[in-house]
């Protein structure tokens, strides 16, 4: 009851005219920057940070939270319409969401994403308010060996799931891991794959790789085929801006499963919502294979609903981890942690005791932000779908410009623009040879975590590799991984046997 009383007081503060205004401003800014490739919520929060020192801390962090949640809504918009997600967390939404858009169901796809993000975010907000201490204690049981097992699970599961060819999936993963190793070795200080270029000493930015492979690679792919195959960009933006009863019934279980997958990852520092969105997509694809008429690959609504719910659920509990533990699990959360310190505040258990006037209005604003984002995105789904009426040369030309602007804004380096062009060509080659992009992104995102965790685990055990399987969590993760591999191998053997018959 004490929690409900404190939350009620938080709503009183959040509904004050100025704080309510900052919620709306944050949601609008987050959605706007999310729509533009390369301009994610982390960049928006970073750009707003110097401007918010004129605000009181409560208003500033309420606006940051709106930007954080709104960025995911905006990311999914371009991921669905143009197959160009603003951040890696929206990659999984492109697989079925973009197929729905190409099939003339863009408005329904956007509605599915908006409702899924709303469901995941609202449930996460409830969890953060009532169950944050329990989730935090569970996360505290993760050590270096557990993080390595989790990364390995993501590597193998993703590589074997998203491609019909395991070889192509592993090749894409190795390419992503190779990109992640470029730069100065954090342990030894040695140069790795820099070819003597000082610009590569800090490694290759994830923003550059994401925009190049997903957005610019798609532009090159369309440009290469548009003359001989004009229908490649022909989409019918017509359709209902709401879901039918049948579609809602189809998506509802996927929203629930995606939310359940995303909630725990908000307190596990594995780089944000990329891993749970892929896992949610993986689960739905496996369930789809058991159906009499599989729908994945044709615009399956469940393949979009689950990742969207998982992404926002992770973001919600990530805010809880930041407030309760001072633990940033994504780039945006890390920037917000820096903002807390700029205001002289230290997130953690003491934050709830010393500044309840900030914490509880901020938690209450999560619920308000979800409602505002649903109001902003759901009625305008059909309007967003009208983007598909823009002639292809102008549309994809504009995407190219925004790709370059987004990368240059984050680095102020012409070298990064050259990298963007080169990696974009790699993305184009991968598309031409049907190589999956998801393993590359997973390798890029989780490669540093896997490397650091493996080194820390071995250093703590004096080189004893048994430390990697020394806890019940690692046994569970490796056991699930073994089951995934056996099911994948069995499925491929059965499919090949049927083909031979």
TrEMBL record:
The chain crosses the membrane at residues 20-49, 61-81, 109-132, 138-158, 165-184, 204-226, 321-340, 360-380, 387-408, 414-430, 437-454, 466-490. Pfam families: TctA. The keyword Membrane applies. It comes from the Bacteria. Residues 20-442 form the DUF112 domain. InterPro entries: DUF112_TM. The keyword tRNA-binding does not apply. Keywords: Membrane, Transmembrane, Transmembrane helix. PANTHER family: TRICARBOXYLIC TRANSPORT PROTEIN. This is Tripartite tricarboxylate transporter permease.
């Amino acid at each position: 009851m004490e929690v409900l009383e404190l939350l009620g007081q938080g709503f009183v503060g959040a509904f004050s005219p100025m704080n309510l205004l900052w919620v709306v401003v944050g949601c609008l800014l987050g959605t706007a920057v999310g729509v533009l490739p390369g301009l994610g919520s982390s960049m928006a929060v970073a750009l707003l940070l110097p401007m918010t020192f004129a605000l009181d801390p409560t208003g500033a962090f309420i606006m940051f939270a709106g930007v954080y949640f709104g960025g995911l809504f905006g990311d999914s918009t371009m991921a669905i319409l143009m197959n160009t997600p603003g951040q890696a967390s929206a990659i999984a939404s492109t697989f079925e969401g973009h197929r729905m858009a190409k099939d003339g169901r863009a408005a329904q796809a956007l509605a599915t994403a908006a409702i899924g993000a709303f469901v995941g975010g609202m449930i996460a907000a409830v969890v953060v308010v009532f169950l944050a201490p329990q989730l935090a204690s569970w996360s505290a049981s993760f050590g270096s060996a557990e993080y390595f097992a989790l990364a390995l699970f993501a590597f193998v599961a993703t590589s074997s799931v998203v491609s019909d060819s395991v070889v192509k999936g592993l090749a894409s993963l190795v390419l992503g891991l190779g990109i992640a190793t470029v730069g100065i070795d954090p342990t030894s200080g040695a140069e790795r794959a820099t070819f003597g270029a000082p610009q590569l000493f800090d490694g290759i930015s994830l923003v550059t790789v994401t925009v190049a492979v997903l957005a610019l690679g798609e532009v090159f792919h369309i440009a290469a085929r548009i003359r001989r195959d004009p229908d490649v960009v022909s989409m019918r933006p017509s359709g209902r801006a709401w879901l039918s009863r049948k579609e809602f019934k189809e998506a509802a279980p996927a929203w629930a499963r995606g939310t359940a997958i995303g909630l725990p990852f908000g307190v596990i520092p594995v780089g944000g919502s990329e891993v749970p969105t892929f896992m949610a997509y993986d689960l739905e694809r496996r369930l789809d294979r058991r159906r009499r008429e599989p729908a994945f690959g044709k615009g399956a609504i469940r393949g979009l609903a689950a990742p969207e719910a998982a992404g926002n659920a992770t973001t919600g509990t990530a805010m809880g981890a930041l407030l309760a533990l001072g633990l940033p699990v994504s780039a945006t959360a890390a920037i917000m942690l820096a903002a807390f310190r700029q205001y002289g505040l230290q997130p953690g258990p003491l934050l709830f005791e010393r500044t309840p006037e900030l914490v509880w209005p901020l938690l209450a604003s999560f619920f308000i932000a979800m409602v505002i984002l649903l109001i902003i995105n759901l009625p305008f789904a059909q309007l967003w779908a009208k983007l598909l009426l823009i002639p292809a040369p102008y549309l994809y030309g504009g995407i190219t410009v925004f790709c370059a602007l987004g990368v240059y804004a984050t680095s102020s380096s012409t070298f990064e623009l050259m990298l963007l062009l080169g990696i974009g060509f790699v993305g184009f080659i991968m598309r031409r040879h049907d190589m999956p992009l998801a393993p590359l992104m997973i390798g890029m995102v989780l490669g540093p975590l896997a490397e650091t965790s493996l080194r820390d685990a071995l250093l703590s055990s004096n080189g004893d590799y048994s430390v990697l399987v020394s806890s019940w969590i690692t046994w569970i993760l490796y056991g699930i991984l073994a089951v995934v591999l056996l099911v994948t191998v069995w499925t491929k053997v059965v499919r090949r046997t049927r083909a031979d018959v």
